[in-house]
């Protein structure tokens, strides 16, 4: 250690009177570091990849499920014209329904040949007239869809024959008896799909808020415990440090949810419920916007949890209120319905999930999410202001856990 | 040469005065040692000087005027019980800390690499800090304080945990900064080290300055003692008026003498009784002064 230092840069030395002492952009440096260290974190990267693989696997499963075609060979004795006509009609019906079932006709010479085909595996079912009506025989109970299709076809054939015998037609007989279904809002989702979607949104909120929230808390306490924060505090205002941490972790949290939402939408687009895509997209866009604003508030509160702790071990105590809040929102929003859900959709933080769910169910007017978002933004501003004070009050205090009250009263 | 001074600096925590009207100077170009027992208020004082802790009353001055935020941003600081980002390479975090202080990225990188090279850590620059030995982590920490030609250095226990060779290396580095006229204030528990290194010394006890000056000034202000060596038992000196025998061990005695006349009288008496091998003033060691002022 004897070579003299040859080059050195010089630190900023004077304030130029404009109020900018060169620390204004510091939040950007802090945010960059938060994002880079998080992205380089192995646990985070592995968790993200695993989540994406799970979502993609679900998508692949749905796609496979929807494109799968089961072919059934129906054996009939070739001499029975009604049976042959019924199977042909059922095959046409299956083709128009496009429900993943295909029916093939397998003509055999007689009943014995049909039984042999059934037990030999060439035929899946055997259709033949019985003593009173028709019989569908399978090795086991025949498939429901095939039974229904063949039943309908046989019924039509027999009805047509009976009608002709009575000197009338099927159309005349069944005039005025047809039941059709109509939906007032064809894009509204079914109850089951809605529950599933609200559960998914609540879970996205929960996972994103808890993981990114605790990461900002531990990143704050890491700097506090190592006293790096004292070096940082002499270099830049603490407000800049807080802003950088909140923005950095928000970018990660929102980016992660965007990624999940994108893959989820792709999964839905490829699945049989792709008809719900427009409603889901609108709801997900609202969710991401609400989440971005709501997470700002949560990130600020979690940063205070980090500042209140003195060691990493204290975090589980100091972050308990935030964790309760996030878990409360999670459980309430995916179980709520009716007017309770409407109330929740205006309560800050709970509305991050509740309002997008109402948008999805088609129950919210266009102005409702806007109003609710404004409320959430106001809450976020309040949370940021209070947190900023508590953060500055607690960060430089060492020795044990600090309470919110002490932090807010302290002037360092 | 810019001087760093504190005037009547006071900090209370509730009813307790951790730092009580502390005033001293750390002149530019000199190493000033800051000593005192645990809880004497050294760290609290240094944190107030850096603006990390709010000042209850009093003031910190730099170059003859109240210290500003921009001044402090140009100071190098090592907090006590410090650490680093364990899972980040040394190079990355030094560049980050330097950039926060306004040093452009390219300069920060070049300077970091130079420092690490001098400290023999060039090949470890990309290792996570947690993989470095404690001594090497300490070297990275001092580098963080020395980046960007700081205008003053405030170092809390910079040598704790370092072996003597590492201490010498670090002192060489600090001397380069005092050579540019920068004031360096550092706290330490190692009195021998402080005595060997420092041009100035401030001793703190229960939040108050009890001694402040150059080591020579402090030694002169301390109680002067004399050593008397005879060729026979020296026990009789206890009875001489104006002589306080601190310690008598056979023919050797450590004495505090009331004045110069007492010394002359003592010498005459001793010569009457036999041979005098030695009568010499004893400069008090810093450890002795420290014990006196903090007792």
UniProtKB/TrEMBL annotation, chain A:
<feature type="transmembrane region" description="Helical">
    <location>
        <begin position="366"/>
        <end position="386"/>
    </location>
</feature>
<keyword id="KW-1133">Transmembrane helix</keyword>
<keyword id="KW-0472">Membrane</keyword>
<feature type="transmembrane region" description="Helical">
    <location>
        <begin position="283"/>
        <end position="304"/>
    </location>
</feature>
<feature type="transmembrane region" description="Helical">
    <location>
        <begin position="193"/>
        <end position="217"/>
    </location>
</feature>
<feature type="transmembrane region" description="Helical">
    <location>
        <begin position="43"/>
        <end position="64"/>
    </location>
</feature>
<feature type="transmembrane region" description="Helical">
    <location>
        <begin position="258"/>
        <end position="277"/>
    </location>
</feature>
<keyword id="KW-0812">Transmembrane</keyword>
<protein>
    <submittedName>
        <fullName>ABC-2 type transport system permease protein</fullName>
    </submittedName>
</protein>
<dbReference type="Pfam" id="PF12698">
    <property type="entry name" value="ABC2_membrane_3"/>
</dbReference>
<feature type="transmembrane region" description="Helical">
    <location>
        <begin position="325"/>
        <end position="346"/>
    </location>
</feature>
<feature type="domain" description="ABC-2 type transporter transmembrane">
    <location>
        <begin position="43"/>
        <end position="386"/>
    </location>
</feature>
<dbReference type="InterPro" id="IPR013525">
    <property type="entry name" value="ABC2_TM"/>
</dbReference>
TrEMBL record, chain B:
<dbReference type="InterPro" id="IPR025302">
    <property type="entry name" value="DrrA1/2-like_C"/>
</dbReference>
<dbReference type="GO" id="GO:0005524">
    <property type="term" value="F:ATP binding"/>
</dbReference>
<protein>
    <submittedName>
        <fullName>ABC-2 type transport system ATP-binding protein</fullName>
    </submittedName>
</protein>
<feature type="domain" description="ABC transporter">
    <location>
        <begin position="4"/>
        <end position="231"/>
    </location>
</feature>
<comment type="similarity">
    <text>Belongs to the ABC transporter superfamily.</text>
</comment>
<dbReference type="InterPro" id="IPR027417">
    <property type="entry name" value="P-loop_NTPase"/>
</dbReference>
<keyword id="KW-0547">Nucleotide-binding</keyword>
<dbReference type="Pfam" id="PF00005">
    <property type="entry name" value="ABC_tran"/>
</dbReference>
<dbReference type="InterPro" id="IPR003593">
    <property type="entry name" value="AAA+_ATPase"/>
</dbReference>
<keyword id="KW-0813">Transport</keyword>
<dbReference type="Pfam" id="PF13732">
    <property type="entry name" value="DrrA1-3_C"/>
</dbReference>
<keyword id="KW-0067">ATP-binding</keyword>
<dbReference type="InterPro" id="IPR003439">
    <property type="entry name" value="ABC_transporter-like_ATP-bd"/>
</dbReference>
């Amino acid at each position: 250690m004897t070579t003299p230092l040859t080059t050195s840069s010089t630190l900023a030395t004077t304030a130029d009177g404009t109020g900018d002492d060169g620390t204004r952009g510091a939040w950007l440096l802090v945010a960059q570091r938060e994002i880079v260290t998080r992205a380089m974190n192995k646990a985070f990267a592995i968790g993200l990849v695993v989540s994406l693989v799970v979502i993609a696997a679900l998508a692949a499963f749905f796609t496979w499920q929807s494109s799968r075609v089961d072919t059934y060979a129906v054996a009939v004795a070739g001499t029975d014209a009604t049976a042959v006509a019924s199977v042909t009609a059922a095959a046409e019906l299956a083709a128009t329904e496009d429900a993943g079932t295909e029916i093939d006709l397998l003509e055999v010479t007689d009943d014995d040949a049909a039984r042999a085909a059934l037990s030999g595996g060439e035929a899946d079912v055997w259709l033949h007239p019985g003593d009173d009506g028709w019989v569908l025989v399978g090795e086991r109970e025949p498939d429901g869809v095939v039974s229904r299709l063949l039943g309908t076809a046989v019924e039509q054939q027999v009805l047509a024959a009976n009608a002709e015998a009575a000197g009338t037609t099927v159309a005349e007989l069944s005039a005025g008896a047809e039941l059709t279904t109509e939906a007032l809002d064809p894009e509204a989702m079914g109850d089951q799909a809605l529950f599933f979607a609200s559960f998914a949104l609540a879970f996205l909120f929960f996972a994103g808020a808890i993981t990114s929230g605790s990461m900002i808390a531990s990143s704050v306490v890491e700097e506090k415990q190592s006293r790096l924060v004292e070096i940082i505090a002499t270099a830049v205002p603490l407000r800049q440090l807080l802003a950088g941490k909140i923005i950095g972790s928000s970018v990660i949290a929102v980016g992660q949810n965007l990624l999940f939402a994108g893959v989820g939408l792709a999964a839905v687009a490829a699945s049989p419920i792709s008809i719900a895509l427009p409603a889901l997209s609108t709801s997900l866009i609202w969710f991401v916007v609400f989440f971005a604003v709501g997470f700002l508030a949560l990130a600020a509160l979690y940063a205070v949890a980090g500042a209140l702790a003195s060691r990493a071990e204290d975090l589980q105590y100091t972050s308990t209120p935030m964790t309760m809040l996030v878990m409360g929102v999670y459980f309430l929003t995916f179980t709520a319905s009716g007017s309770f859900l409407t109330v929740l959709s205006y309560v800050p933080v709970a509305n991050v999930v509740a309002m997008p769910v109402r948008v999805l169910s088609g129950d919210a007017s266009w102005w409702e999410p806007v109003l609710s978002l404004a409320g959430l933004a106001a809450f976020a501003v309040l949370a940021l202001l209070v947190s900023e004070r508590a953060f500055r009050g607690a960060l430089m205090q060492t020795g044990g856990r600090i309470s919110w009250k002490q932090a807010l009263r302290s002037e360092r | 040469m810019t001087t760093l001074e504190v005037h009547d600096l006071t900090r209370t925590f509730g009813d307790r005065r951790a730092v009580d009207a502390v005033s001293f100077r750390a002149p530019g170009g000199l190493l000033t040692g800051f000593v005192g027992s645990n809880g004497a208020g050294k760290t609290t004082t240094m944190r107030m000087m850096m603006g990390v802790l709010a000042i209850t009353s009093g003031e910190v001055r730099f170059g003859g005027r109240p210290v500003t935020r921009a001044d402090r941003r140009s100071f190098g600081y090592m907090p006590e019980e410090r650490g680093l980002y364990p899972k980040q390479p040394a190079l990355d975090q030094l560049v980050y800390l330097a950039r926060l202080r306004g040093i452009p990225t390219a300069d920060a990188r070049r300077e970091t690499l130079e420092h690490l090279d001098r400290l023999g850590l060039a090949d470890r620059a990309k290792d996570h800090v947690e993989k470095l030995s404690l001594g090497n982590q300490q070297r990275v920490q001092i580098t963080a304080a020395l980046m960007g030609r700081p205008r003053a250095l405030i170092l809390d226990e910079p040598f704790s945990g370092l072996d003597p060779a590492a201490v010498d290396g670090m002192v060489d580095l600090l001397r380069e900064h005092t050579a540019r006229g920068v004031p360096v204030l550092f706290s330490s528990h190692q009195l021998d080290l402080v005595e060997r290194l420092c041009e100035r010394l401030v001793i703190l006890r229960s939040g108050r300055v009890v001694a402040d000056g150059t080591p020579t000034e402090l030694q002169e202000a301390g109680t002067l003692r004399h050593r008397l060596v005879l060729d026979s038992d020296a026990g009789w000196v206890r009875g001489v008026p104006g002589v306080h025998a601190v310690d008598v061990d056979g023919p050797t005695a450590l004495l505090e003498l009331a004045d110069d006349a007492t010394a002359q009288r003592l010498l005459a008496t001793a010569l009457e009784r036999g041979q005098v091998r030695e009568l010499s003033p004893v400069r008090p060691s810093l450890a002795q002064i420290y014990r006196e002022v903090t007792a």
